[in-house]
C-alpha cells in the first residue's frame, strides 16, 4: 500500500554583510522511479535568483540556482509531495547464481557496474577485510542476503550513532577505530565493506520518515547540518530511529535478479517507505545537498541552518500549502 509524504527542506546561509554569490547546485528533489512518484514540487529562493534544472552524471536531478543580487542571507526552501509505494526488497528473488556468496557478476553486469566496484579507500581494505571476516564462514558458502543482513545489523548494534555538524565523511578506518559515526559514515563503511567482498555498491542520500516524530503537536523538524521498512532485528518500538529530521544517507547493493537493494545500517532497514532517496553517487562527496560559492571576507560568514521535516499525509491533496503540479 502506498503512503503520501510531504518533505520540506530549508537551508539558510547567514552573512554579516551583503555578499555576492556564485552558482549553487542543490540536490533536494526525491528521485522518482517505480517505487516513488513526485506529485508536486516547489523551490523558492531568496534573494531573487535564476533557476534551472540539470541531470548529473548519475541522472540525479540537480537544481542550479544563480542569485542575481548581493544579500546578507541566502535561503533555499524546497517542498515536495510524493507517493511512496514501499517495495519489500527481501521478497525480490535473486538470480540462482547470486543466492550464495561468493559469486561473480556476469561480463555485461561487471562492465556496467565498473564505477561501483572498486573501493574508494584501498588503503583501508586490510582493516576492512579483517572486520568483515567475522561475518564469513570458515569454509563453504553463505546466503548472500545473510552476509548483507549481518553487516547491516552489526553496524547498528556495535557502533554508536553520533550526529556531527562538521562537513565531510569519516574514512572507513576512522569509523572502525572510533566505533561511532553519522549516517554518512555508516553508509560509507558498509559500502566499502561490500566492495571489499567484490559486490557493487553506491552511496545514497535522501530523507528518512519517522512516524514517531510525525504528530500534530510536534513537527519532525531539526536544526542539523545536514512505513514499513523491513528490519532485520529490533522493532521500531524497541530502538529509536536515528537520523530523522535531517538529511539521511544509506547505500544500494546490486544483487542480480533483485537489482539495486537499499540497506540503511544506521537503522537496520532494507527499503520500505521510510527511505526517500534523492540521489545516488559513486562516493559521498558527490551527493552534497548544497554546493556553491560566495565572495567576501572569511569573517563575513555568520553561519548556516538546515531544517528538514517529513510528515505523512492522508492523501495527495493534504499538503500544508499549494505547490506546483508536475
Specify the biggest β-sheet.
9 strands, antiparallel
The 3D shape can be described as globular
CATH fold naming of the largest domain = C8orf32 fold
**How far do the termini sit from each other?**
22 Å
Q: Please name the CATH architecture of the largest domain.
A: Roll
CATH class assignment of the largest domain: Alpha Beta
Residues in helices, as a percent range: 10-25%
Residues in β-strands, percent: 35-45%
Pfam family, one: Bact_transglu_N
InterPro entries: Bac_transglu_N, Papain-like_cys_pep_sf, Transglutaminase-like
Protein name: Transglutaminase family protein
Domain Transglutaminase-like: 175-267
Could you walk me through the main structural features you see in this protein, from its secondary elements to its overall organization?
The protein is an alpha+beta fold. The protein folds into two domains: 3-85 and 288-325, Immunoglobulin-like (Sandwich); 89-209 and 232-286, C8orf32 fold (Roll), CATH 3.10.620.30. It contains five helices and 19 strands. It has helices at residues 107-112, 125-132, 144-158, 172-178, 183-196; strands at 3-26, 36-46, 49-55, 61-67, 71-84, 100-101, 142-143, 160-161, 180-181, 201-208, 222-223, 230-231, 247-255, 259-263, 269-270, 275-281, 290-295, 301-313, 324-325. Helix 2 crosses helix 5, helix 3 packs antiparallel against helix 5 (183-196) and helix 4 packs across helix 5. The longest helix is centred in the middle third of the chain and has 15 residues, at 144-158. This is Transglutaminase family protein.
